[in-house]
Structures are given as C-alpha cells and as structure tokens.
Design a protein that fits this description.
Blueprint: H1 12-45, H2 51-81, H3 84-95
Amino acid sequence: MTGTSVFMNKSVPERITELRAAAAIYAEQRERLVVAASRHKMAHTRRWKTVGERAAEVDAAVEALAETQRRVADLVASLAGDGALDDFTDFLARKH
C-alpha cells in the first residue's frame, strides 16, 4: 500500500482536515528544529559539554519534521490524485 492509498478511503473533506492539521504540526516541528539547531550551535560555539545532547535534539527534530513532511506530501498527493486540488483551484479562481 502506498502512502497515498491509505487516504483514498477517506472523503475529501476528511483529507483536507487532516492536511490542515498536518500542516500545523509541520510548522511546529519546523520551529522545533530551528530552536534545536540554534541551541546546538550555541553549545558547539561555547564548547559546552551539552553539545552531544543538543545534537541528539537536532536529530530528533529532523526525524519528526521528515515524518510530518511525508504525511503532508502523501495527503497532497492523494488530493491531487483524485482531482480535489484542481477543484479547489477552480473554486478559488471563481472567487477571486
């Protein structure tokens, strides 16, 4: 089963709701990575003993971000695959 096929048994509104939630989580994960990278850089620059812990935080943040990014990409692909994004684009074009 591909990443996108797991979403095909859900309705378009359900997938859009999941996409919105996943995008919000992605933004949070991205901010977490920025903070972790900043802390790692500070620990490295100041030669603190916590540099290893900070590197582990960066690794964990990267992994979490990558997983969320995959989920967002799979949801977008599932919506594009059945034409829902085209419908949405047409809707927006009519509104504006």
